[in-house]
Amino acid sequence: MISKKARKNVFKLTDELADPLDLTSHLPFRIAVVSNLLALNRDWKIRKLCDLEPREMRVLINIGSYMPIKSADIAYQSRLDSYTISRAVKKLQQLDLVDVRQDAVHKNIKNLMLNARGQLLYRKIITALEQRSAELEEVLDVQETQLLYKLLDKIENKTEQILAEQALELIEQGHEPPADQKEIIRWYRKGLKS
């Protein structure tokens, strides 16, 4: 285990540049490091369960947890872009894990559902995820866990706001936003309404 102090001792800031960024005190970097460690394909126990890529596992998990669900709702829930969701759904369909069903009320909406094979894999994956989550939460007491979730909500919302406002500013300057930026704006506006 490496503490912040130990990290600072090992990774000395460069004197080759003026005012280098201290990554040990840079919140986005530290969150990204933890995110990298928590990547589904980093966990060998989870990786041994299936040959799915992390994006496909994330989509499968979202479908299993919230089905019937639309692709757009998975994108919003997981903050993945729609292209990534579409590719993952296509792969999951090819592997015969997911079914696409027309919505009973809105005929133009397609809902995603796990079929029997998908549900079996979902159960295996979430069992491994729940074990890992329990081990991680052992380092926190109940109050710290609640506080962490509250802080993560604040960070997520602020990050979305920053990205959306930057994109809107560039649009006002006449730039054409890429698809992922349009989605960030849409998510941000959706959050403002709720």
CATH C-level class of the largest domain is: Mainly Alpha
Domain tally: 2
Global Rg:
20 Å
Q: What is the percentage of strand-forming residues?
A: 5-15%
Q: Secondary-structure element sequence?
A: HHHHHHEEHHH
Widest beta sheet: strand line-up: 1-2
CATH topology of the largest domain: Arc Repressor Mutant, subunit A
Number of strands: 2
CATH superfamily of the largest domain: Winged helix-like DNA-binding domain superfamily/Winged helix DNA-binding domain
Task: Please provide a written account of the structure.
This protein is mainly alpha-helical. It folds into 2 domains: 118 residues, Winged helix-like DNA-binding domain superfamily/Winged helix DNA-binding domain (Arc Repressor Mutant, subunit A, Orthogonal Bundle), CATH 1.10.10; 55 residues. Helices cover 64% and strands 5% of the residues. It has a two-stranded antiparallel ribbon with strand order 1-2. Strand 1 and strand 2 form a beta hairpin. Helix 4 crosses helix 7. It is globular. The N and C termini lie far apart (41 Å). The model has no long low-confidence stretch (mean pLDDT 89).
Walk me through the topology.
Layout (H helix, E strand, L loop, with lengths): L3 H7 L16 H12 L5 H4 L6 H13 L4 H8 L3 H13 L3 E5 L7 E5 L1 H22 L4 H31 L6 H15 L1
Antiparallel strand pairs: 1-2
Summarize the structure.
64% of the residues lie in helices and 5% in strands. It has 194 residues and is mainly α.
Descriptive key words:
single chain; mainly alpha; Arc Repressor Mutant, subunit A; 2 domains; two-stranded antiparallel sheet; globular
